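Table S2 (continued). Query chain:
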Amino acid sequence: MPQIKLDKTPLEMFHKEHGATMVEFAGYSMPLQYQLGIKGEHLHTRSKSGLFDVSHMGQIRLKGVSVLKDLESLVPSDLQSLEVGAMRYTVFTNESGGILDDLIVTRGDGYALLVLNAASKVAGLELLQENLDCEIELMTGSALLALQGPGSVKILNELVPGVEKLFFLQSAEFTFLGSPITVSRSGYTGEDGFEVSIPKSDVRKFAEILLNDPDVALVGLGARDALRLEAGLCLYGQDLSKDVTPVEASLSWVISKRRREEGNFPGFGPIKEQLVSGIKKRRVGILPLGKAPARAGCEIILDGGRKIGSITSGGYSPTLERPIAMGYVEELFSKIGTEVLLLVRGKYLPAKIVDLPFVNTKYFRQ
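Corresponding output:
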């Protein structure tokens, strides 16, 4: 069987030099874990500061006179009200209201920055090119790092003075080694932290300086997945798909009041109907009551044998020291506290529906 050629981030050799276990993810060679191991990296991020390479994500710059207004034709969120430097989480929808991808939009001075999921960035780029009449640039010359955890603000501010003034979902331009970089107070771990868009030519030096701080540890995909699950955050392709609407995904909050009234985005009809009349399934938190984790695909059963849904993300929580999961159940059984069974390796294990997140987020809000 011929070996599949994987894309590589600019830090490919850097990861290997630091003992990373490399795996395929979304067509990229990515670090799964380093010498600390998944649990060690996870707890280090929660207590100090974790450094993540997220350069596989799709960074796209849009330039045009009415770029945010035009972009609203593809998403259900209010983008025009964003101030310069402000960021917003949103989703691309299709005509049936399903989610094509989730993304972050940042308003720059005369432009917009988009960060798309790695597996969806080619389709997302094509969607933009087919529907928007503006300058669209896939930022192939830029890398993306995330520094997450309670120690991150002090550590990053020493390297990039001024980032401490940012609030959650706020972005600004800075310089490093004379080159422009963009720093946002954001991330996908539930912790306070930052993402740094930086020229590929400077990213290794930037990472090396950060790693010189004893409170910074490299963190791979394994810990990143557990961190986002603890925070109740969705992974596209598992918790979100073209067959799930924002309402069903418990993301109705991305649909602003103005957009609910005026529509003008793909799938407005079906989504409006759900907002008015209700839904048949809903994303919920699920807490297995034993020690065995329930992975994606496990069936959710009522006592009596009736299937009411399935797990979409599940695993072990190093913070809580127990298994946790998310999934979709019939709306009728989505009430917090509802007792269910999980079919795990042929055995029915008890669980209950719980509120999200599992671990409270620590975003630094204004």
